[in-house]
Amino acid sequence: MPRIAALIFLLGVLISSLQGAGAAIVNLGDGGGVNAHPHNLSTNNNSSNPGVIRSTTEDQICIFCHTPHGGSAKGPLWNRPDPTVPAGGTFDLSSRPGLNIASAGVVGTSLYDNSDPDSYPNGATRLCLSCHDGVTAIGTFLVGNATMTDNYMSVDGTIELSSTHPVSFVYNNATKKPAMSIPTVGDAAILDGADRMQCTTCHDPHTHTNDGTYTLPMWRYYGSGGTDENADYSAMCTSCHVGTPGVPDIHNM
Ligand code: HEC
Ligand code: HEC
Ligand code: HEC
Ligand code: HEC
């Protein structure tokens, strides 16, 4: 009997440690809306870090990005103005002729076209940059506004497209290199409704995965390699860049 009791105890420890591992995820609505998700910009962000950007006046969470009425058609019930993509914020492929998505046949058929500031960046990437450009006021919505502890993105959170993985391009047989693969339906490496790679291919804005032990932020592939962060990371990249590390041309780009 003691042995069974010990087994039950160990099982309990195992289950609670598995639950502990799962606790890395915080969804935006968790805790009745009171949580430390970095995208919880409301007064209900209960992070103890004084540097966290949040509002001193607005207690709703979703309003920073969505509104039930009067939103823009650029995103789901989207409550944000267009970003002001800063100088150098485009990803100019003319200096990278080796890339398939930079080839002449591709640019101009709008598979990758950064010549029009109104259409590039596009899709969810454009939505992300309405805060992550570092220059658009976080607390100014299409409908309403909020006073923030800091109304502009931190330096760390500011994303330069010129030093980011290419985004806002159509990913298909014309843009991929021959050895690359296209994620199948149901694969978490999502392309958007227009078959484009976006920030949301790698990140899910509603899910906080960076709890300090797991460092990949808002990782859409969280858990795809069990609880192993490295496996989650490579599962993301190799869903397109198939290859074996150490083998020449392994990147298959
Ligand atoms: C920091 C910005 C941000 C906040 C805050 C936010 N969302 Fe979103 N949400 C987005 C973006 C960006 C998309 C579009 C994602 C895409 O195109 O892949 C989206 C999409 C959605 C969608 C469409 C389905 C989907 O998942 O693509 C729903 C539903 C949604 N959000 C609900 C909510 C709710 C409910 C809240 C508040 C608890 C919320 N969101 C807060 C950024 C946000
Ligand atoms: C309403 C403004 C807003 C929008 C829109 C927004 N973010 Fe954020 N995001 C923030 C803020 C504020 C932080 C915290 C940055 C800081 O404190 O340095 C943040 C942090 C992050 C982080 C780091 C999280 C961590 O755990 O360290 C990621 C990744 C991120 N955002 C991705 C996205 C993506 C992808 C989109 C679009 C789908 C998006 N964000 C849209 C405001 C926004
Ligand atoms: C190919 C996958 C991928 C794409 C696409 C991607 N990210 Fe990330 N992002 C990462 C990884 C991995 C990290 C963590 C390591 C790092 O910081 O470089 C990260 C980190 C971040 C952070 C935390 C701050 C930082 O720089 O470390 C923010 C904010 C962020 N990404 C926003 C974005 C936005 C906005 C876009 C779209 C313009 C985007 N990401 C596109 C993979 C991606
Ligand atoms: C949805 C598919 C997809 C995913 C997922 C993806 N990539 Fe890419 N990546 C591409 C495409 C397409 C290109 C451009 C290839 C070309 O034009 O020749 C590219 C280009 C690159 C480049 C070259 C960029 C340059 O400017 O020279 C690097 C490095 C890279 N990816 C690394 C990564 C890493 C690391 C990850 C995971 C964090 C990742 N990729 C995830 C599709 C993807």
Walk me through this protein's architecture:
The protein is mainly alpha-helical. It contains four helices and four strands. The protein has helices at 2-22, 123-132, 199-202, 229-238; strands spanning 26-27, 169-170, 196-197, 207-208. The protein has a two-stranded antiparallel ribbon with strand order 1-4. Strands 2-3 form a two-stranded antiparallel ribbon. The longest helix has 21 residues, at 2-22. It is globular, with a radius of gyration of 21 Å. The chain starts with a helix and ends in a 15-residue tail after the last helix. Residues 1-22 have low confidence and may be disordered. One heme C (HEC) is lined by residues 96, 99-101, 165-166, 171, 175-177, 189, 197, 201, 236-237, 239-241, 253.
Q: Briefly, what is this?
A:
With 253 residues, this protein is mainly alpha-helical. It has helices spanning 2-22, 123-132, 199-202, 229-238, and strands at residues 26-27, 169-170, 196-197, 207-208.
Average of the residue pLDDT scores: 81
Distance between the termini: 60 Å
Bound molecules: heme C
Number of discrete helical segments: 4
Indicate the proportion of strand residues: under 5%
Shape: globular
Listing every helix as H and every strand as E from the N terminus to the C terminus, the arrangement reads: HEHEEHEH
Low-confidence stretches: 1-22
Reading side by side through the largest sheet, how are the strands ordered?
1-4
Largest sheet: 2 strands, antiparallel
Gyration radius, in Å: 21 Å
Structural class: mainly alpha
How many strand elements? 4
Helix content: 10-25%
